[in-house]
Amino acid sequence: MTSENPIVTGYRGWVDVANQQLQRAGLNRAFLAAHLLTGGSERAECAVMEAIASWSPDQSDDELFEQVLRAAVRGTVGDGQSFPNRVDLPGAALPAELQAVLRLAPQLRQCYVLRVLAGLPRQSCASLLHLSAQQVDQYTCAALECLPFLGAPSSAATEYLA
User: Fold this and answer.
1) pLDDT per residue of the chain (162 residues) written in tens, 0 to 9
2) What gap in Å lies between CA 127 and CA 73, rounded to an integer?
3) C-alpha torsion angle, residues 43, 44, 46, 51 (rounded to 10)
4) Which of 39, 100, 115, 147 could form a disulfide with 84 if both were Cys (CB 3.0 to 4.6 A apart)?
5) Domain range spanning residue 130?
């Protein structure tokens, strides 16, 4: 019997919860992804509205989802700044695991959301985020290492916020 790395064990729980949330169909999924990418519900709403405005009914839901991701990342939503360290909806129904994602630094959060939760290939993420594929891998791995600490209500979590 082999022992499993504790980071991998903790990671599985985070992914399961996040995937359950992201697997909801249609705009709920798109809004959640945009919320996690931008760090704010208002910015997420703007990204969804922008994507809907450019979407045509003959396009698939997956194409709409991709347009929302692009709008959320592009920086045309608001002033291009994200609000990484707070959940801005009073009584938000986000599970603790997804609230922890919002506490990640912006680049870590965006790489994690696109690679792990949205399941995009690293080259697609690199192109969207204007990063190298190696940077996408580094930021995604760093996010995976940080998330278990950000879910804990300790002061150690502040180390990963910047």
Assistant:
1) 456 555 555 566 666 666 555 444 667 889 999 999 998 888 999 999 999 898 887 888 888 899 999 999 986 334 444 444 444 544 356 787 888 999 999 999 999 999 999 999 999 999 999 999 999 999 999 999 998 888 765 544 444 444
2) 11
3) 140
4) 39
5) 6-160
Q: Which residues neighbour 156 within 8 Å (Cβ) at sequence distance 6 or greater?
A: 149
Q: Which two tokens stand for residue 121?
A: 């290939």
pLDDT at 134: 97
Rounded CA-CA distance 102/123 in Å is 23
Split into its structural domains, the chain has a count of: 1
- CA quadruple 31, 98, 105, 12: dihedral sign: negative
Half-sphere exposure of 91 (CA within 13 A, CB side): 0
- Does the residue 64 lie in any domain? yes
Distance CA 82, CA 105 (A): 10
Structure pTM?
0.71
Q: Look at residue 1 and tell me if it is in a domain.
A: no
Q: Tell me, what CATH number does 65's domain have?
A: 1.20.140
CB 154 within 8 A of CB 162: no
Task: Check: CB of residue 120 under 8 Å from CB of residue 131.
Answer: no
